[in-house]
Amino acid sequence: MSVEYATFGLAPAMRAGGVLADGGYQVHRDFLDFIVDGRPLLFQLCDLDAVSPLAADVPPAIFSAQVRTLLLETDAPFEGSRCVIYGCPECEDIQCGAVTAVIERDGDDIVWRDFAWQTDGSADLDLNGYQGIGPFRFRGEEYRSALQRLLPGDTDQVPVRRRVLLIGARVNVLAKLAAALRTIGIGAEIAHDADTVPPEELRTYGAVAFGRAVGEDERAAVRAAFERAAAPAAYVEGLAPIIPLLVAQIEHALDRSPLEQRRLTGLSATADGAEVEVTSECRVQLVAYRLDRLYRSHTQQLFDGMLEPGRHLIPLDAKTAKGQSFVVARATGGVLVAPVAR
User: Fold this and answer.
1) Domain 162-256 has what CATH class?
2) Which fold has domain 260-342?
3) Is the bond preceding residue 244 a cis peptide, omega within 30 degrees?
4) What percent of the chain has pLDDT over 70?
5) % of the chain surpassing 90 pLDDT
6) Which of 147, 184, 266, 293 is the most buried (most CB within 10 A)?
7) What is the DSSP string of 96-134?
8) Which pLDDT score, from 0 to 100, does residue 158 have?
9) Distance between CA 56 and CA 184 in Å, rounded?
10) Would you state the torsion angle of the CA atoms of residues 288, 291, 297, 301, taken in this order, to the nearest 10 degrees?
11) Alpha helices, DSSP H only, in the chain?
């Protein structure tokens, strides 16, 4: 009798941070997600806000220990050979809840089974088991090859924490933006240009954000400096001096997850409404930001609810579309920004 195998892989993923409409903050986390049969395993878990143990901000020794646990080279942290698959993005406390699974060898194969939500040292499958997820049987060679590349000596797949270079004329806006980014876990520095920044430092930036007052010649000079340093970066054209909006733009620019593995894939807005596209059922939050004639900013919560896969039109009222208006869509793992077109 043949055995049905699932494919196993890893891919960059992000838990998008941000300055929220209620004034709170959400921490940014870069991590590697588990790709099972070509699709992020996290997508099967009911819009769960969580990250894998393979996160960029984990100290190297702990990161390696997590990898060796998944490779079954060290003991599982919980009874019954249970390992953490996804945990709280804000802390590492099991009391916040975590998705765990039994990871075991079966000959040369590796099996993940009995997925459950766990808040203490043991899991109750009858009460908190994930029905219909798994078991997954992976070919041992494929499984070990993907994980072993994360160990010291081979850093091609290890997630890297990125910083953002902020360039603009309005120092007060840049200072507030840098403070907001640092609060959510993204390093940020302010500069007039990139000419005096050493190439090795340029290579640590994942994005460059330009203020609206920065001229095209200045922008071209910054891009040229990054090209000379062989430092690929995403370039963000600031839409408006509204801190939550700029943070959302930068979060989107830092997203390195493959396009085909994202939940939130499309956003556009006109005076009639905002059109959002999602690839799997998830919670979506839509917030509008507006500058009035006196350049005062206004915030309006437009939508917060579950959406099925596909395209959805969320109506906008006339006031939302007045002046310079922008819409931010946020879902688990991603954020998009769009100006309201007239």
Assistant:
1) alpha beta
2) Immunoglobulin-like (2.60.40)
3) no
4) 97
5) 63
6) 147
7) G-EEEEEEEEETTEEEEEEEEEESSSS--HHHHB-TT--
8) 64
9) 14
10) -10
11) 60-70, 125-128, 140-148, 171-183, 199-202, 216-228, 243-254
